Amino acid sequence: MSRGAKTRHPVRNAIVLLFFFAGMMLLAARAVYLQALNTDFLQSQGNARHSRLVKDNSHRGMILDRNGSPLAVSTPVDSVWAHPPTLAEERRKWPRLAALLGMSTHELAQLLGRHDDREFMYLKRHVPPALAERVMALKVPGVALQREYRRYYPLGSVAGHVVGFTNVDDQGQEGTELAFDSWLRAVPGAKRLLRDLQGNAVEVAESVVLPKPGKDLVLSIDRRIQYLAYRELKAAVTEHNARAGSAIVLDAHTGEVLALVNEPDFNPNNRAGLRSGTFRNRAVTDLFEPGSTLKPFTVACALESGKFTAGTLIDTTPGSLQIGDRIIHDVHNYGMLTVAGVIEKSSNVGASKIALALDKKSLWEMLRHVGFGDTTGARLPGEVPGLINPSSRWVAVDQASISYGYGISVTPLQLARAYLVLANDGEALPLTMLHTDSPPQGERVMSVTTARRLQSMLELAVSDAGTGKAAQVADYRVAGKTGTVRKLTSSGYSEEKYISWFAGFAPATSPRLVMVVAIDEPTRGGYYGGEIAAPVFGRVLTGALRLLDVPPDAPRQSPRLMTVKSEQVAE
What is the pTM of this model? Predict the structure, then answer.
């Protein structure tokens, strides 16, 4: 070997060593930079592989009745979730996992395919504790449990339409759950979970954002009265083979809704197989003509006008009245009736003659002032305002038919609010589903004198000689009015389909409770409001007045004495 070749090898070796040491220095410098000066990158990569941010749920606020009894509570429950990339690598464990979760392996594969670019997916929500244990016993990498809350309704069907329900994400869907969702809803937080090498969560490292539980809500509902109304309405709908029914009980002093029930009912704890129509709160969504239950407001307008007193005589002979091509009938020819007698006997002819003697705008304003054609203020989802045409569109037959409750559509809750005006000495109150310690500011829509005259007249309708005898309550004086309405169909008013009404309040001398009952299409045992709806009123208030320790008022007077009293007051 030449001397020149020997000289080149040491130089080349020196260059290689120089590059080697330079590379080592760069790697060392990079390590120092990442480990000591800029830790964020490695920390983020480590966190991505060994920790994960997940939602930290809290419970929704409770719904309570006015006495503190629970109507809706949240119970903790586990949901099964997965980290899609990790689970995707464990195909051999898919069959057993899918079988436990009630799905096929193909369905599990499709679910993973839809979430392959995600870090989180639910496999099954709200599973029973035993199933949660069996899933975790499989020790499938990437599969874990998430604590959530499921809503439970202690009263079940009894308060289904009042309380409503939530969906799987704990969001209100119906009833007060929906109406007050923003108040009840919890605000979830976030927590960081540490994972093991298989991707399973092993412990909570820290709470990043603390969750906020929802606020409790105290309703005006009294669960005892709610149960009474539910039981009696259900029994009546079953006994008379009716299509549906509604019942409402109000506090006459505050406008609080103490009970609200509908048939058919539903159990919010078990909604499998139920149709959406079952959830409909008929007391606020369904419109019916009120029939004779509207007559007291026609008479109220008459008394307020100064043209009539309770003792003014109305000739209803021969039991019918022709207006144009329309003939209005009474059940019997009552002959001469006082204005109070028109209420007692529920005379359509008498009510028509009174209305036709009044200014139609005044009658329209009275009906509007007591709440017809407007929502009640109860804030229940789906509430409709009803229908009453402007008086400018009324012709004589409209004015007459509206006087006895045809040509106007109301909800059962609207009718209850209107009777609250009579029970509250002429003051209209907004209705409320929330418990209140003091009554809201009312609006006077008729004089105290007129309201009290109507109270006495409505006692006549519940006397032994009146149409609402079945609504009587032992030891209490009751005031109220029956209504029987033929339903309007596509071919006109039906001769077979009816709405049976009763609306009233007790004790008559100092009203405490207002109640409305509506039975839709009874097909067995009659159809008159006095036969079908009035007994429900009587049975519910018999229990409710005693539950509230309302003292009995004076013994109920005979119809003859009451008639004399009302005539004397009118004069």
Answer: 0.84
Per-residue pLDDT band for 187 (boundaries 50, 70, 90) equals confident
Residue closest to 414 by CA, chosen among 308, 302, 261, 287: 287
pLDDT at 6 over 80: no
HEC letters along 328-358: EECCCCCCEEEHHHHHHHCCHHHHHHHHHCC
Contact 432, 162 (CB under 8 A): no
Asked whether the predicted pLDDT for residue 447 surpasses 70, the reply is yes
What is the number of other CB atoms lying within 10 angstroms of the CB of residue 46? 11
Residue type, 360: K
Residue 16: the pLDDT is: 63
| Phi–psi pair at 206, nearest 5 degrees | -165, 155
Structure token digits, residue 14 = 């020196």
- Give the pLDDT score at 563: 38
- 99 vs 164: CA distance, rounded Å: 33
How far, rounded to the nearest angstrom, does the alpha carbon of residue 228 sit from its chain's CA centroid? 18
At 159 the three-state DSSP class reads helix
Q: How many residues does the chain have?
A: 571
Do the Cβ atoms of 508 and 223 come closer than 8 Å? no
> How many Cα atoms occupy the beta-carbon half-sphere of 487 within 13 Å?
17
More confident residue, 228 or 23: 228
Environment class of residue 555 by beta-carbon count within 10 Å: exposed (0-12), middle (13-18) or buried (19+)? exposed
pLDDT tens readout for residues 538-556: 999 999 999 999 999 856 4
Reported as type and span, the H/E element at residue 430 is: none
- Band the pLDDT of 570: cuts 50, 70, 90: very low
Q: 507 phi and psi, to 5 degrees?
A: -65, 145
Distance CA 401, CA 351 (A): 9
292 is catalytic: yes
**3-state DSSP call for residue 54?**
strand
Q: Are residues 84 and 119 in contact, defined by beta-carbon separation less than 8 angstroms?
A: yes
CB count in 10 Å sphere of residue 182? 9
Predicted local confidence at residue 148, as pLDDT? 87
Give mean pLDDT, residues 478-492.
Answer: 93
How many Å apart are CA 191 and CA 207, to the nearest integer? 4
For 367-382, the pLDDT digits (tens) are: 999 999 999 999 999 9
Enumerate residues 6+ apart whose C-beta is below 8 A from 182.
Answer: none
* Rounded distance between C-alpha atoms, residue 260 and residue 559, angstroms: 32
Catalytic annotation, pick one of 292, 346, 409, 500: 292
Return d(Cα 331, Cα 415) in angstroms, integer. 24
Distances (CA, A) of 359 to 220, 298, 366, 392, 403: 39, 11, 11, 11, 12
CA distances (Å), 563 to each of 12, 299, 339, 430, in order? 130, 16, 10, 33
How many Å from the N-terminal Cα to the C-terminal Cα in the chain?
A: 147
What pLDDT, in 10s, does the model give residues 115-154? 988 888 999 999 999 999 999 999 999 898 988 889 999 9
pLDDT the model gives residue 65 = 98
